[in-house]
Design brief:
Blueprint lengths: L4 H7 L5 E10 L2 E6 L5 E3 L2 E5 L2 E5 L13 E6 L3 H8 L9 E9 L5 E23 L2 E11 L2 H5 L8 H7 L9 H6 L7 H4 L2
Parallel strand pairs: 2-4
Antiparallel strand pairs: 1-2, 1-7, 3-4, 5-6, 6-9, 7-8, 8-9
Length: about 200
């Protein structure tokens, strides 16, 4: 959401542009893209333009904690990014993806500081190609999700002796618990309690 008075005043003029800045944090390094047709320098990085506007699925303002997935399609991108996309899933899965919204003035310079529009994690990447009259066209499709998805997939902790030994080696607290659950012991019979 744009909240700065400078950005709001520029948005009310006729000569203004808006650009998405897309930051993808792979294991081996971070890549920076923009949907603008020229490179943007901000935050000490150069945000590389893509010749085809990145397709970003609808971003919605919501106050609920519901999951908001996002699909990003970049075409064309550098060979290095294609290599990352074709690499092991551990290279990207669960790594941060952030989209900033930048306001540009009539000279196409940044106005104020770009604001985070969406942040989450990369889930899956698909490299697609299509044969057209102009030749072979390719794209990389990123499926990203925000943090609320991970809450529903949290790993549960098993309370057994093996797990306890990993956490606290030498602890005897859970050594007999599985046997006690499988073979319950009657402590005192009714006959014993009546004297």
């Amino acid at each position: 959401m744009i909240t700065g008075s400078t950005e709001i005043s520029k948005l009310s003029t006729h000569h203004v542009g808006v650009a998405y800045l897309i930051k993808l944090e792979f294991d081996s390094g971070t890549v920076y893209y923009t949907n603008f047709d020229k490179a943007i320098t901000w935050d000490g990085h150069t945000w590389t333009p893509t010749n085809v506007t990145p397709q970003v699925s609808a971003l919605k303002e919501t106050s609920s904690l519901a999951s908001q997935d996002l699909n990003i399609s970049l075409s064309p991108v550098s060979e290095a990014t294609v290599a990352l996309a074709l690499g092991a899933p551990e290279e990207y899965r669960g790594k941060a993806c952030t989209i900033y919204l930048a306001v540009l003035d009539d000279t196409l310079a940044l106005v104020g500081t770009p604001k985070i529009r969406w942040s989450g994690f990369m889930d899956s990447i698909q490299v697609v190609t299509d044969v057209t009259d102009d030749g072979v066209v390719g794209a990389i499709n990123f499926k990203c999700e925000n943090g609320t998805n991970t809450l529903s997939r949290m790993k549960t902790f098993r309370i057994n002796n093996m797990q306890q030994q990993l956490r606290v080696p030498g602890d005897k607290g859970f050594e007999y618990i599985e046997r006690l659950i499988a073979e319950p012991i009657t402590w005192l019979s009714v006959k014993f309690q009546t004297v």
